Amino acid sequence: MIYEMTIQFRVTDIVEGQRWYETLLDRKPDFIPHEGFCEWELIPGSWLQVVEGIPSEGSGPLRLGVENIEKERDRISKELQVEFFEICSREEVPVKWATFTDPWGNRLGFFEYIRETEKPEKLKTVLGKKKPIV
User: How many CB atoms lie within 10 A of CB 28?
Assistant: First the structure.
């Protein structure tokens, strides 16, 4: 039985990497067990680890669900100097999505549910709430 997950991205400079991911995630790490390693619990049981080391070329993408993909693209373009990136969609897919890279070549992205009715149901499932969040 799988009950948790982690994904690890390597950065060449942990101080710069931690600062970059703090800005991306808009918060400090949840766990720093030792030098060269920091970790955020993105949703219950799902952890993003940022570790000092040699980045793996083309890793990811790790796509993060957001409420407004255009707003997040604008924010990280301004705050993190992320190059402008295209937002994609397909008629048969219930989300819009986009991919970008961090300064170390790790591939990340965002996605946003197109139908407003899906987001509260997903939040209810992820957060274990009895009634939908609106």
Answer: 11
Question: Tokens representing 11?
Answer: 């950065």
Backbone angles phi, psi at 16, to 5 degrees: -65, -40
pTM here is 0.82
The SS3 call for residue 30 is coil
The whole-number pLDDT of residue 73 equals 97
Distances (CA, A) of 61 to 24, 36, 41, 81: 15, 22, 17, 19
**Structure tokens belonging to residue 70:** 């255009």
Cα 119 to the center of its chain, rounded Å: 17
pLDDT tens per residue, range 40-67:
999 999 999 999 999 988 778 999 999 8
The answer to whether the CB of 88 falls within 8 A of the CB of 96 is yes
In a domain? residue 92:
yes
| Total domains in the fold of the chain | 1
Identify whether 62 is part of a domain: yes
